[in-house]
Write a structure and sequence with these properties.
This protein is α+β, with helices and mostly antiparallel strands. The chain has two domains: about 80 residues; about 220 residues, Deoxyribonuclease I, Chain A, CATH 3.60.10. It contains eight helices and eleven strands. Strands 3-4-2-1-11-10 form a six-stranded mixed β-sheet, with helices on one face. A five-stranded mixed β-sheet has the order 5-6-7-8-9, with no helix packed on it. Helix 5 links the parallel strand 1 and strand 2. The model has no long low-confidence stretch (mean pLDDT about 90).
Amino acid sequence: MQKIVRYILAILAGVALLATLVSLIPSDQWFIRAVDLVREPIAYIALALALLSAIVLREWRWIIAGMFLVVALIQFWRIWPYNSIADEEMALYEPGAQDRCFTALAVNVKVKNTNFQGVIDQIQSVDPDVLLLMETDEKWAEALAPVVSQYRHSLSDIQPEAFGMIFASRLPVRRSQMIENTHRDTPTLYATMDLPNGAAFEFIGLHPKPPLPGWDTEERDRNIIDAGAKTPDNLPSAVVMGDFNDVPWSRTTTKFREAGDWLDPRIGRGTYATFPSRLLLLGWPLDQFMLKGNLGVRGFEVMPDNGSDHRAMRAVLCAGPPS
C-alpha cells in the first residue's frame, strides 16, 4: 500500500510541476493559459499534498514533498499582489461633503441558469445606479425586462449562447455602444456617462471567451488589452467591470492594467474569487473591477450566491469635486 501511495503522489507531483513550469511559457495555447485561472487552488492543494507526503511517505519523502512545495511557491509568487499582506495599490476613498457616489453591479447570470428570481432579487436589493448583465439570451432578457425598464437608459446585445449583454444606467448617458471587436458574438460595451458631480467618465463592460479546447487566447487577449487602452472618448476617468474569463495576475490582465493605467482595488486586499459560486474557497477571480482618473472606491464586494455559477461584483464609486 505504501508503494502505491508513493507512486500516486510521485505522478501527481511530476504532473503538477510540469504543468506549472509550462504555464510560465508566454504562449496563447489554451491548455497553457488555463493554468493561470487555477493558480490559487493549485497552490493550496499542492501545500496540502506536500504536507501529506512528508507525513505518510518513508521513501522519496522529501523529493515528492519538495516538488509539491515548488509548485505551491511558484503559484503563490504569481498571485502575490492579490493577498492581504502585499502593498495596497490604492486606498479606499473617503468622500467629502461635495462628493457624490454611485453603485455599480456586474452580474454574469449564466445562460443556462433558470433561477431568474434569484438574480432579480439580488439586483433589487442592491438597487445599483449602473447595471451590467452578462450571458443574457432571449429568456433572460424577457425575465429581466421589468427590472431593466426602471432605468433611464438601457442597451442590449442579446445572444443565443453565452455572450449576450445588457447595460442599464440611472446616470445620464451621453452615448453607448456595443462593439463586437473580436469574435462575432462577444460584444464589448463602451458608455460615456455623466458623474454625479457633472464630469464625465467611461464605463466598459467586458466578457470575452475563455481559454477552452479550440479557443486559444490570442483574440481574447487582444480584446482585453485593447478594451482598456482604446476607449471611444479617451477620457481620463473610467471604470471597467465584467467577466474577463481571465484572472488579474495573468500576463493579459496585467498588460490591460499597464496599457490603460488602471488601478485594481483588490491588490493588497485579496483575490476576491467569484467562480465557481458555490466553491469559492477553491475558486478564482474571473470577474474584474478596475478604475482610473478622478474616481475613488468607497467599497466593493463579491455578492452572495444568486443561482449563477459566478458571484456578482458590487462597487461603490465616488466622484470628487470638479478640478
